[in-house]
């Protein structure tokens, strides 16, 4: 993140890369020594590359995580164990990180996906579908590996009963792999990480975000993957997590029924700046270091639910969209809720008519003007 002086100096240099420090000082009414200090800081933050101040053009958001082929099986009736059940099926593109990235791309945000894939038909399909919205130049393809897949069984109301994920290729998203992308990541305005990457890689990203003052959002993918999250989260701006994931992380038995507010307080003790605890369709809770108050939000309801798959990823993308628009925390959460609201009314994991205009209008309709 850049401070006020850094933003103003960078803006002048963008207009005239050959502007002198004296001219900058005169334009901004600050000492020339301050200008020199600010320019040194901009170079250290990889915003400039020396004379004539060649300006880096960073991608505002890098999403680091999984991508896969999604297969959905919709039961025609109640699930009967240990026998064949009639279903209708469909195949689409998914993965938590990829879904978030596509949402952001459809919302007119510049986004790059860091992930891994095989040299197979599955990745060819993912690439063809995703490339119009997301920069895939940093995806690493690996020989003798299979692109990830995810299969979900849904009840007749669209609620998930069972999910199976073949994410074995994600073991290659290591600390060393992250370090190969260090020069790109330090230029980001925001980093988004799903926990398909391992513990050491997550820690490396947290260190980058902390050292370079980059907004970092962490999105767990399931309770078992909570072991990929370090104990100390200083440097993490946001974590978006559900009750099951929280109980797994803190070692609670699922039958203990810990209060949501207690879980939020536990998260804040780890050093994370903001935590959003989701509790399905009932409520979500926001806790922040800068206030003692825990705020409860009620998601908007609709009778037109078609499929809840992808709603969490849409929520995360909506939040990031608000952050990138410099909205307040409350306004950003409204964008998040509105995007999830739109997604559950679609059969697509990422709504195929999603746009910034649709999200802006829906948010205004649901919550009033931002």
From TrEMBL:
GO molecular function, one term: kinase activity
Coiled coil feature spans: none
Pfam family, one: PfkB
Lineage: superkingdom: Bacteria
Any one Gene Ontology cellular component term annotated for this protein: cytoplasm
InterPro entries according to UniProt: Carboh/pur_kinase_PfkB_CS, PfkB_dom, Ribokinase-like, WH-like_DNA-bd_sf, WH_DNA-bd_sf
Keywords noted in UniProt: Kinase, Transferase
Residues annotated as domain Carbohydrate kinase PfkB: 63-350
Keyword Chloroplast annotated: no
This protein's name: PfkB family carbohydrate kinase
């Amino acid at each position: 993140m850049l401070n006020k002086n850094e933003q103003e100096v960078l803006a002048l240099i963008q207009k005239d890369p050959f502007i002198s420090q004296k001219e900058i000082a005169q334009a901004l009414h600050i000492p020339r020594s301050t200008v020199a200090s600010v320019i040194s800081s901009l170079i250290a933050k990889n915003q400039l590359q020396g004379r004539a101040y060649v300006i880096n053009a960073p991608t505002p958001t890098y999403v680091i995580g999984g991508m896969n082929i999604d297969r959905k099986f919709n039961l025609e009736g109640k699930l009967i164990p240990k026998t064949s059940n009639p279903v209708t099926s469909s195949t689409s593109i998914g993965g938590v990180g990829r879904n978030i990235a596509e949402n952001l791309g459809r919302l007119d945000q510049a986004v790059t996906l860091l992930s891994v894939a095989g040299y197979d038909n599955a990745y060819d399909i993912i690439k063809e579908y995703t490339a119009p919205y997301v920069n895939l130049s940093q995806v690493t393809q690996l020989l003798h590996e299979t692109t990830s897949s995810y299969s979900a069984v849904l009840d007749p109301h669209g609620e998930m009963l069972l999910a199976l994920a073949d994410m074995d290729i994600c073991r290659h998203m290591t600390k060393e792999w992250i370090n190969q992308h260090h020069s790109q990541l330090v230029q980001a305005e925001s980093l988004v990480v799903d926990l398909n990457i391992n513990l050491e890689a997550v820690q490396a990203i947290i260190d980058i975000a902390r050292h370079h003052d980059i907004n970092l959002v962490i999105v767990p993918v399931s309770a078992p993957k909570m072991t990929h999250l370090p104990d100390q989260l200083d440097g993490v701006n946001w974590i978006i997590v559900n009750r099951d994931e929280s109980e797994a992380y803190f070692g609670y038995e699922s039958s203990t029924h810990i209060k949501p507010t207690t879980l939020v307080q536990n998260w804040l003790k780890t050093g994370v700046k903001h935590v959003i605890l989701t509790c399905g369709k009932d409520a979500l809770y926001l806790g922040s270091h800068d206030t003692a108050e825990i705020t409860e939000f009620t998601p908007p309801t609709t009778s037109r639910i078609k499929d809840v798959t992808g709603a969490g990823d849409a929520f995360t993308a909506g939040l990031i969209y608000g952050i990138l628009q410099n909205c307040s925390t409350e306004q950003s959460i409204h964008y998040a809720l509105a995007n999830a609201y739109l997604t559950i009314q679609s059969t697509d994991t990422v709504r195929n008519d999603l746009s910034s205009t649709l999200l802006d209008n829906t948010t205004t309709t649901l919550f009033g003007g931002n």
